[in-house]
Amino acid sequence: MRFYEYESKEIVRRAGIPTSKGGFATTAEEARARAEEVAGPVVIKSQVLTGGRMKAGGVQFADAPDEAARHAEDVLALEINGHMPRGVLVDERVAVKHEYYAGVVWDGLRKQPVMLFSDMGGIDIEEVAEQHPDHVGRGHFSNVLPFSDFQAKQVIASVGVTGSALNRLTPILTRLARLFVERDMTLAEINPLAELEDGKFVAVDAHMEMENEARGRQKELLETLGVGDEETREAREPTPFEIAGEEVDAMDHRGVAGNVTEFDGNLGLVIGAGGGSLTLFDAVRAHGGQPADYCEIGGNPSVRKACGLAKLVLQKPGVEKIAVMMSIVSNTRVDIVARGVIKACVELGFEPAEKIAIFRIPGAWEEEGFKILERYGVPYADRTVSLNEAAKRAAEAVPAA
Amino acid sequence: MSILVDESTTFIVQGITGREAVNLTRECLDYGAGAKIVGGVTPGRKGRDVHGVPVFDTVAQAVESHGGPIDGSVVTVPPAFTKDAVFEAIESGVKLIVIVTERIPRADVAGMVELASMRGARIIGPNCLGIIVPDKIKMGGIGGPAKDAAKAYTPGPVGVMSRSGGMTTEISSTLSAAGLGQSTAVSIGGDAIIGSSYAELMPLFAGDGQTEAIVIYTEPGGRMEAQLSEWVKENDSQIPIVAFMAGRFMDEMPGMSFGHAGTIVEGKEDTATEKIARLKEAGIVVAERIEEIPDLVKERLGSGAPA
Q1: Which residue of A367, B18, B123, B253 has the lowest C-beta tally within 10 Å?
Q2: In this complex, do B107 and A143 lie within 8 Å of one another by their Cβ atoms?
Q3: Rounded Cα gap, residues B157 and A49, in angstroms
């Protein structure tokens, strides 16, 4: 999950890293107050979870509080790439002598976090790494042994930084590395990390992303930042259909019947498990089918949940039929899913044999499952029919609209 | 032969009194030669038994009761307790740890993997279904109940590695139906950081006399496929590899997570397109559909010189 810049800077500040002065505002009046507190030239930055805000006009400069308020009013009303801003950040315009970059990310192959540091800050680090590789220092660190300052120092010194800058930067990168681990971040980036005319260093902009799996144990941080449980902070906001999918999955704690993503086709998919869903979605599209949704069943969900998911998909506007398909199941029971989807059809007043284009779930309790499907005349397939063939039958049963 | 486990492998189940762990224990005891599950651990439940397997409070007690080192552990405890359970197993001398638990934060996984490597232990998973040697032993929920596992898995020359537990069975079943059995099938786990990647298991398969070809199932996200390609090139490996890539649609949807925790397109290297190109560069054939896999394997077994 992503944090807004104003949240990221707060996280950095709490870790003991100095940041430029300023604060968050949701109205023009608040922006004026923040500018008065700064008591100098400010920059007003749109708080959106998308890139390109500078180009879109989401960053404005002001010399006086009145001007700050006027700009804030404009920026607050400006939609950027389909996102309305959460507010604006009113920051002091600092006198920068030099811009650095400091970041920490995961290295999935080394299975350790890696610090990245550059003396060419203010631009995209990947660009620097490509064009000026000698200006990017890297250092992996342990998740078992305690972090020690020298590790940060080595990385900074490796790009040629020395003197007082090295000694002032070392604790900053050290704190960033520690916060990355302690706060379960997947990305912790300060860019630019500015050296001011007076020799001090401040974080001017920060970008933090936290692992979803860690939200539970980072509850206190999230609460104090005002991040609600319902905020997914993914690439885009969930649709009402997707939120309803989450509600189905939350009905009980048995298994999974959810992870719904909305698409605009006419073929409803009730599919699983993780890898099976990915394979089936590709296959349906390869055969010209137009999925209305992506979803996942797995881990042996209850009849109630399977039924809830099937109902949600069946009721989605534009859905003509559903295809119920999974890779061979080991602990999810075929008969339970069969009962769930048939129940969904019946309760909505549909004929299961009409509404279910194909049922292809082989595996645990398949004999029992197939008996139920036969009783209702639902077309089904066992493991001799491949995922691809099942997807083809589904796509043919519901031609593209 | 097989890799990682065989009929003589002893293991424990940590979190054995949980609902899924009770089922898993039954399945492993019933399958093939019958797994040698020498104990289970659930703190506070010492003295009970699960399908005849004695339950202990600590791994050390299980080792003491067994009267010697225990080879492996299947860890099924909730995510908040997994790191501690795995540390306990490693520090009690266990050398092969299968982590079934999902949704463990990465910092914890990295710590477990690092301690394992410091102690000469290996981790499979997390977020995996374990390991199966057809007709001999299964360690984990892979393949499900013994009778279902027996339908899908048969002994033979193909090593299988998969980021999806379910697809390990789907692919093995497809191979079995075409007369191609498996040497060992490993569900390696769907997270961004896992204990053993394709490339890290390849030396074991390459050194296994039974394995003549490899099939992998893969998804967008991460760099594991590029790492496998590097391994093949660096070792000039002649063992044929057939790959299947699911989730091609995700290339159009950067930043959205599907399937498994590690399955997300964040950068160019995460995309299916890029991964397929990397695999092909190393001479790894990429199947368009699962049902093509058996023929692709047979062609390479017939013509190629197995390692």
Answers
A1: A367
A2: yes
A3: 50
- Nearest one of A288, A315, A297 to A360, comparing CA atoms: A297
Minimum Cα–Cα distance from A217: chain B residue? B80
| Residues B228-256 pLDDT 10s | 999 999 999 999 999 999 999 999 999 88
Say how far apart CA A139 and CA A237 lie, in whole Å: 35
Of B167, B224, B246, Cβ closest to residue A282: B246
pLDDT in tens, A329-370: 988 999 999 999 999 999 999 999 999 999 999 999 999 999
Mean pLDDT rounded to a whole number for chain A: 95
Q: Which residues neighbour A185 within 8 Å (Cβ) at sequence distance 6 or greater?
A: A104, A179, A208, A209, A210, A211
Q: What are the pLDDT digits (tens) for B63-91?
A: 999 999 999 999 999 999 999 999 999 99
Of A140, A26, A131, the C-alpha closest to A84 is: A26
* pLDDT at A162 exceeding the cut of 80: yes
In sequence order, the 6+-apart residues with CB closer than 8 A to the CB of B94 are B12, B59, B69, B70, B71, B72, B73, B121
Length of chain A: 401
What does the pLDDT read at residue A230?
Answer: 81
Summarised one tens digit per residue, pLDDT across range B150-180 is 999 999 999 999 999 999 999 999 999 999 9
What is the Cα–Cα distance from A24 to A26, expressed in whole angstroms?
7
Please tell me which of the candidates A106, A213, A327 has its beta carbon nearest to residue B167: A327
Matching residue, tokens 């972090």: A147
In this predicted structure, what is the pLDDT of residue A235?
77
Measured CA to CA, the distance from residue B187 to residue A25 in angstroms comes to 49
How many inter-chain contacts (A to B, CB under 8 Å) are there? 167
Rounded CA-CA distance B264/A259 in Å is: 14
In the chain, the amino acid numbered A261 is: T
B-chain CB neighbours of A236 within 8 Å are 255-256
Q: Give the dihedral of Cα atoms B271, B276, B281, B284; nearest 10 deg.
A: 140
B260 is catalytic: yes
Q: What angle do CA B208, B176, B276 make, to 5 degrees?
A: 70
Task: Find, among A216, A205, A184, A195, the residue nearest to A97 by Cα.
Answer: A195
| Least Cα separation, residue A287 to chain B (angstroms) | 12
Is A184's CB within 8 Å of B106's CB?
A: yes
Taking the C-alpha atoms of residue A218 and residue A234, their distance in angstroms, rounded to an integer, is: 17
**pTM of the entire structure?**
0.95
Beta bridge partners of B206: none
| Contact residues for B160 (Cβ-Cβ < 8 A; gap 6+) | B168, B171, B172, B175, B182, B184, B185, B186, B214, B215, B216, B217
Average pLDDT over residues A61-76: 96
Closest Cβ opposite residue B219 in set A144, A181, A275: A275
- Phi and psi angles of residue B55, each rounded to the nearest 5 degrees, phi first: -100, 135
Of all residues in chain B, the one with the smallest CA distance to A333 is: B144
Residue-wise pLDDT for A129-143, tens only, equals 999 999 999 999 999
Mutation choice for B interface testing from A300, A331, A334 by most B CBs within 10 A: A331
Q: CA of A116: how far to CAs of A103, A159, A187, in Å?
A: 5, 11, 11
Nearest-CA residue of chain A relative to B289? A388
Q: At residue A185, what is the residue type? A: M
